[in-house]
Structures are given as structure tokens and as C-alpha cells.
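(Deposited chain)
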Amino acid sequence: MNRPSFKFLCLVCILSVSATAHAVEDELRVIPLVRGDNVLVSFELPDAYNDNVRETISSGLTTTFTYVVDLRQIVPFWVDRTVATAVVSVTNAFDNLTGRHNLTRTVDGQIIDSIITEDEETVKQWLTTFTRLSLCRTSRLTPNHDYYVRVDARGRPNGSSALGWASAFSGQTRFTFIP
């Protein structure tokens, strides 16, 4: 292969990988925020609440969205170091007789909030959005280093037929910690 063709092929590969990575990031939005002594993380998976999810919920099956949130320090030429991890779960138990959704949110297995609602927009918001998760103290971070927050999302009941998810979703965002 001559040199110009090789360069063109490399450029096409880089652009296709970049486009794929960008598409994945658009599915799950991650926003890290350093506020005071805490690293806070907000995330949203807006397209996850689709017709398949609505059907699963209306059938009476308990539906759970689970998000694994990792804060990692970028380590050049080595494996990135995990600084903190949290598991956020939101469970929706729908009662067909009353038309009410019993929503429960847990962080690392501890219930932090629960509500009962009949409003579908509230259900969507609870299942797909989390605001200001306190992930760790800034004292665990090294000043002027690069970090990223990665969020992996899964839905239950498992299987693409139930929730319409062919696989788990992931998203991540980089930031530099400047105290």
C-alpha cells in the first residue's frame, strides 16, 4: 500500500472511531462538578424511557435502572486508578389496580429517597436522571491531575426484549482537578 492511501485509511479509521465514541457519549450524559470539598456527579439517560420500558412497567413487572459510577485518575502508560465508586439503583413497582408507581432510590444499597406517584413524567425523571451524587471528598484527589467519571447503566428485567436495551449504556467525562 502506498503512503497516501495508508494515511487516508488511517484518517477514515480515526474518524469512524471518533464518531462511534461521540454517539455513545450522547446516550448517557455525565457531568462531574467539584464543589467545596466534594466531587458531585450528575447524569442523565434521556432516551432510555421508551415504549418498551412503558410496556414493561404497565405489565406490573418491577423495573430497576442501575448505574455504576466510577471516578478514575488517568495514569499515563498504566492502568487508570479507581478513586471512588458508587452504585445507584432506582426501582419502580407499579400497582395496576391503583395506577400508582412506588419509586425507591438507593446509593450503595442504602435507601436515600422514595415516593409514590401517578405522574409518568416523574417516573421518567426518577429512572433516567440523577443530580448531584456526592461521589467522594476532594482530599482524595491529586491537584492538577486528570480524572474522568464513567457511568455504566443497566436495566432490569434483563434482556433486550423487556426494556428494549440491547446492552448496557456507558458515558464518561474528563476533568482536571484544580483546587
Remarks:
- The radius of gyration is 19 Å.
- Confidence is low (pLDDT under 50) at residues 4-26.
